[in-house]
Automatic annotation (TrEMBL):
Domain HTH luxR-type: 144-209
Organism name: Streptomyces coelicoflavus
Domain Response regulatory: 2-118
Gene3D superfamilies registered for this protein in UniProt: 3.40.50.2300
Protein name: Response regulator transcription factor
Phylogenetic classification of the source organism: Bacteria, Bacillati, Actinomycetota, Actinomycetes, Kitasatosporales
Keywords: DNA-binding, Phosphoprotein, Transcription, Transcription regulation
4-aspartylphosphate PTM positions: D53
UniProt xrefs under PROSITE patterns: HTH_LUXR_1, HTH_LUXR_2, RESPONSE_REGULATORY
GO molecular function terms attached to this record: DNA binding
InterPro entries: CheY-like_superfamily, NreC/VraR/RcsB-like_REC, Sig_transdc_resp-reg_C-effctor, Sig_transdc_resp-reg_receiver, Tscrpt_reg_LuxR_C, WalR-like
CDD domains to which the protein is assigned, alphabetical: LuxR_C_like, REC_NarL-like
Example GO BP: regulation of DNA-templated transcription
Pfam families: GerE (PF00196), Response_reg (PF00072)
């Protein structure tokens, strides 16, 4: 795994590099002292993962993450920071980072976070997980979390039956509606969810807990 490391403190970079280079499957291939240099390094070095400090001169880690996500869509991004801060955490995730590691526990968490990133898995320290859950629950309480309720009850019924393999005719008979109405619901489902066919509808229904895998 080839790693691009960016931090404006040379001493921190040296320490982080020691942690990473001890591992046989991790290799730091480029170092940068700020966000702008990190972007330049990404253009000239082949890297699988960028480990970025949040607070850096010229471009912050958050700004660099947004640029890198656009420049190199396949590049995974980890934030390495001293800030145990919910606002930074949410901004990092919005910027395209797949993980958030505190410098205070980097010797414990950084290697695991790098490997998780390469498996396309998120990595968050326990306090960050708590913050995300608390934020989600706050949005639910304030009625802001509507993504799970974008479908009407009738659309959910149709989706469940489609995913279970019923034909439009069978669904019409089960729900006592016309075949045309079933087809309209199905078209609405595909459009609302941005899906293409029955297979994708079935996968969505499994993720939404409407049917068992």
């Amino acid at each position: 795994m080839r790693i691009l490391l960016a931090d404006d403190h040379a001493l921190v970079r040296r320490g982080v590099r020691l942690i990473l280079d001890r591992e046989p499957d991790l290799e730091v291939v480029a170092e940068a002292g700020d966000g702008a240099e990190a972007i330049d390094m990404a253009r000239t070095h082949e890297a699988d993962l960028a480990v970025l400090d949040i607070a850096m001169p010229r471009l912050t880690g958050l700004q660099a993450a947004r640029e890198l996500a656009a420049l190199k869509p396949g590049l995974r991004i980890l934030m390495l920071t001293m800030h145990d801060n919910e606002q930074y955490l949410f901004q990092a995730l919005k910027s395209g980072a797949c993980g958030y590691v505190l410098k205070s526990v980097a010797d414990r968490d950084l290697v695991a976070a790098c490997r998780a990133a390469m498996r396309d898995e998120p990595f968050l320290y326990p306090g960050a997980v708590t913050a995300l859950i608390r934020n989600y629950l706050d949005r639910v309480r304030h009625g802001e979390e509507t993504s799970d309720h974008i479908l009407t009850p009738r659309e959910e019924e149709v989706l469940k039956l489609v995913a279970e393999g019923h034909s439009s005719k069978e669904i019409a008979e089960i729900l006592f509606i016309s075949i045309k109405t079933v087809q309209r619901h199905r078209a609405n489902l595909l459009q609302k969810l941005g899906l293409r066919d029955r297979l994708e509808l079935t996968r969505y229904a499994i993720r939404a807990g409407l049917i068992e895998p």
